[in-house]
Design goal:
CATH architecture: Up-down Bundle
Number of domains: 1
Largest sheet: 2 strands, antiparallel
Number of helices: 5
Order of helices and strands: HHEEHHH
Strand order of the largest sheet: 1-2
Shape: elongated
Radius of gyration: 17 Å
Number of strands: 2
CATH class: Mainly Alpha
CATH topology: de novo design (two linked rop proteins)
Oligomer: single chain
CATH superfamily: VKOR domain
Distance between the termini: 8 Å
Strand content: under 5%
Amino acid sequence: MSTDRRLRLIAIVLAVVGLGVAAYLTYVHYNGIEPVCGLGGDCEKVQTSEWAELAGVPVALLGLIGYASILVSLFIDREEALFAGALLSLVGFGFSAYLTYRELFSIDAICPWCVSSAVILTLLAIVTTARLMLAPTDRRGAVPYVG
């Protein structure tokens, strides 16, 4: 199996897991229920904080859209899709780092679901950036598919 295929498979698994986390948190938000929160976290406090929405949009929904977009990019064999996947992952990583900062220093509570998403986005940023950096390109900008 080629390096690109391995990295793509790893990224797909990470994006699907992230999609599941974001889907659960989005479901919790729109149904007004308390999230299951183990390990002594305070998910409810984080989910109802002023930082749980951006311009009226729940950050869980933004995560859902982000993970879905990253996943779609992983099934397109073009240089532009490689770039988009890496860019989306890096933006998600940065936003997640900001939200983790807010959890620690503004909300004074930790949500294990949010931490898991931050870890997933960190790994996705690494894997998608590695794919982009290792990808051979031809003059048309297409990335040859190595099956």
